[in-house]
Amino acid sequence: MSKWINDPSNLVLLAWENHHLEGLMAFSPPHEGTTWLRLLALPLDQQQAAMRALWEAAQTHLRPQVQLASALVTRAWIEPLLQQLGFRHQDTVINLTLDLQHATLPPPGQQVRVRHVRWGEHQRVLGIDHAAFAPIWQMRSSELREAGQRASGYTVAVAGRHLVGYQLSMGYATSMHLSRLATLPEWQGQGVGACLVGHLVQQARNANVEFITVNTQLSNVASRRLYERLGFTRDELDLPIYGLHLQA
Known about the structure:
alpha+beta, Aminopeptidase, eleven-stranded mixed sheet, 7 helices, 11 strands, 29% helix, elongated
């Protein structure tokens, strides 16, 4: 946490009253006109006032580079505060789980093969990520590099000499989390994602992992259908996404 707050590329705002810290609001670095509200801490007795003061200060810094500010609501008390500032519900992040005892492996891909990512392929993988996702969901180069270093599974789908998709996953004691799954737009719908997930399932079983988790947007119908076809089931925990378009 301290490393993230002290990173000069992140926008961190503090609210003070009589030399006492009363609140904190922090945003990710702008990317293609977008940013995420990453941290929020407010006093219990003055949440609305502190939130408004921090947001007014934040807009001054954000407007030159940001057209869309988004927030993932992980605590119920944040939602009404965002609504009071003009943020509106944009989408919902849903969580899914795959019990490996009931996983349905897809047949081996005929057009692609899956292998571990190699040294020097960072920019090519980043290109897949940016082609597959809208700017608000894209990983910055530094984020992808750091995630790749921490990943327990980092594989690419290859067609001929071309990288056409990738997956990045994190390992825990009895589970794995599929953090990222992306396919080039022209290769979507051709089984690339299923091949990558199938390879991950085999890895997980070899490591005696019991289940795999993943999250996606409620609006991403293609992604949801893929996971459901492979045996993932939806959990009860849904997280709303709020957004606000900033005027220059």
